[in-house]
Automatic annotation (TrEMBL):
Domain of life the protein comes from: Bacteria
PANTHER family in alphabetical order: DNA-BINDING TRANSCRIPTIONAL ACTIVATOR ALPA
One Pfam match: Phage_AlpA
Name of protein: Helix-turn-helix transcriptional regulator
Length: 97
């Protein structure tokens, strides 16, 4: 019984955490040249609660779609804080993938 518990714990540890998904998305964004052609200095940054409200998606679904490349990648605002460019979210809402 104890051995089965250790296996389950090992499987849970192998699951990807949002930080891992963020890192993968950031690397993919860097590889593609990053974002769309909008001038970013005048673009608003939207936090997760607002992204959820606008898209109707749950947090896990958003991060899963980011990892799959079907949702805009987020940007790091600080160490533990991310956001999305408003133009990217508006573009995705107009034509979701």
């Amino acid at each position: 019984m104890e051995h089965a518990g250790r296996e389950a714990l090992a499987v849970r540890r192998q699951r990807r955490k949002p930080a891992d998904l963020f890192r993968a998305a950031r690397e993919a964004d860097a590889a593609t040249g990053g974002g769309n052609s909008v001038t970013r200095e005048h673009d608003n940054i939207v936090r997760l609660p607002e992204v959820r409200r606008r898209t109707g998606l749950h947090r896990a679904t958003i991060y899963r779609k980011v990892a799959a490349g079907t949702f805009p990648t987020q940007i790091a605002i600080s160490t533990n804080c991310v956001g999305w460019y408003e133009s990217d979210i508006n573009e995705w809402v107009g034509s979701p993938r």
